[in-house]
Amino acid sequence: QARSLRHAIAAHGRIALFASTRVIAAPASDTLLVEHDESAMHLPFRNLILCTGARELLLPFPGWTLPGVTGAGGLQALVKAGTPVRGERIVIAGSGPLLLAAAATARRHGAHVARIAEQAPLSRLTRFAGALWRWPSKAAQAVALLDRHYRTGSHVVEALGDERLRAVRIHQGDHIVALACDRLACGFGLVPNTGLAALLGCQLDPVSDAIAVNALQRTGLPHVYAAGECTGIGGSELALLEGRIAGYAAAGADDRAGLARWRRRVRAGMRSRSRCGPRSRSTPRSRPWPAPTRRCAAARMCRYRPSRRIRMPGWPGCRAAAAWAPARDASAPRPGGPCSAGRSPPRARRCLPPGSAH
To answer: Which of 82, 173, 214, 341 has the least CB density, counted as fewest CB within 10 Å?
Structure first.
């Protein structure tokens, strides 16, 4: 589907695509300053849609800077880019469904996955799995990704090695396990990319740090919209629907945007406020996997504002727990969902020149 969308953009005569381009400033409320490989330029706009995606959350532990230690999503990106992993011993740790996806990608390219260490306890995962009947496709994906090396209630204590990773120590249950490995991939979900939104002055949700939008994906700034993971983590299906809503709204077709919004509610099972997360947007918006809990410097570094703490003795981390959000008016900006699992690299920003179709 992504390939077909790229082909459609390339074939459209009224869309200008600037690759390897980033926004570096906003000199005016209707202008962006962008730079690419050769030069910089001003891009004025009438309406702007932010689709800045999300970034992977990594938490520090002893040895986390050793060569061979990456994020779970980073491992996927390296393997898909051609990094050879055939025959290598890989340990994947952290929290969330991305661990299973990263393990499947590594196995397909010939790696040996020695352990998948899921931090969440089995009881919490069992409760989450029991709710997947609402989303059969997600349940089927989960079953397909199951791995015999998957262990719950486990987390990395230390990565061992001198100039490169040689082994990893994992706290599993009430004992420590040492595993020899060539690569260690850790991931604790995603956090929305809101740097550009903050630069423009968009309102952010104080709990999730996502861009606050209303029912038509409008931010608190006139003529600025946002869609996708930057408004809360929810997966590619939801991001596509939000992009459609934002596109219709930015083009002045609010009636078609309202229809797309209705389709989003039907697809996400949102006829009533779900118990899976604060915004009831989609299954992945919820976070059944607890991230590390104890307040530390990493919490301040990651700009986490925990609304609830789950005690896990011995874990040197932090978490931003899901909090139930009060009911909001449909026309008012609404916060994004909580951090969740999964990983996608930051998406390139697409900027339209004046006069182009929105």
So the answer is: 82
